[in-house]
Design a protein that fits this description.
It contains five helices and nine strands, in the order βββαβαβββαβαβα. It is an alpha/beta fold and about 210 residues long. It binds S-adenosylmethionine (SAM), the ligand Nc1nc2[nH]cc(C(=O)O)c2c(=O)[nH]1, iron/sulfur cluster and magnesium ion. Keywords: 4Fe-4S, Iron, Iron-sulfur, Lyase, Magnesium, Metal-binding, Queuosine biosynthesis, S-adenosyl-L-methionine.
């Protein structure tokens, strides 16, 4: 298995229940809901993406020949110390590339493996922390996990229906873009109206971390 990695870097997790945690981010190239090209955005199944996941040219990116090579790269980015090792695997859509061999290679190096997925592909076994973020108009097959992170507002998604899915945490994250202020108000309104939903903000953007 070779892996196409857009970028990999050490930062703090900015989103969700684990926000504030030191983590190596491993961003896989490619997504099944958008090509990543601006000219395709309006027609894409997911059209609000805030991320460049095209190619392998980012910091810490590249093509990796196997799970051991990539896990060693993640370990080097973590640096000294074996305590509280955390890797967040994202993208793009990580389930296009993440296999059990890579999950195991990271766990053998002492990492807790967290994953951010759009839920349209089944989750790879062995993940320690699964975040699913549903996109309107797509079929979400992965309806269980640790946190469900709803980017809001999204026409065509009913939070009450999502509440029937099997997640430990229900999070609402304001849709970033030209109407961020209105998104924040809508997210606050959801959390105030339906108390199972907790507001999460993209803290890395506030403090200027990648
Ligand atoms: C770039 S995605 C990559 C992982 C996966 N493809 C997914 O969509 O969950 C990482 C996280 O950012 C969220 N996200 C993407 N664009 C966003 C935006 N404009 N505002 C708020 N969150 C956004 C996604 O919903 C997801 O939770
Ligand atoms: N700091 C930081 N936290 C994040 N949490 C989820 C992210 C993502 O792009 O998947 C992300 C990201 O890009 N940066
Ligand atoms: S599914 Fe995730 S990576 Fe793909 S376009 Fe949407 S937010 Fe971006
Ligand atoms: Mg991001």
């Amino acid at each position: 298995m070779t892996y196409a990695v857009k970028e990999a870097f050490l930062t703090l997790q900015g989103e969700g229940v684990q926000a504030g945690s030191r983590a190596v981010f491993l961003r896989f190239a490619g997504c099944n809901l958008w090509s990543g090209r601006e000219q395709d955005r309006a027609m894409a199944q997911c059209n609000f993406c805030d991320t460049d996941f095209v190619g392998t040219d980012g910091p810490g990116g590249g093509k990796f020949a196997g799970a051991e090579e990539l896990a060693a790269h993640v370990e080097a980015l973590w640096g000294e110390g074996t305590e509280a090792r955390l890797v967040v695997i994202t993208g793009g859509e990580p389930m296009l590339q993440l296999d059990e061999g890579l999950v195991e290679a990271l766990r053998e190096r002492g990492f807790r493996v967290a994953v951010e997925s759009n839920g349209t592909l089944p989750a790879t076994p062995g993940i320690d922390w699964l975040c699913v973020s549903p996109k309107a108009g797509t079929v979400v097959v992965q309806r269980s996990g640790d946190e469900l992170k709803l980017v809001w507002p999204q026409k065509g998604i009913d939070p009450a229906e999502l509440e029937t899915w099997e997640f430990d945490h229900f999070l609402v994250q304001p849709l970033d873009g030209p109407n961020l202020k209105a998104s924040i108000d809508a997210a606050i309104d959801l959390a105030m109206t339906r108390p199972r939903w907790h507001l999460t903000l993209q803290a890395h953007k506030v403090v200027g971390l990648p």
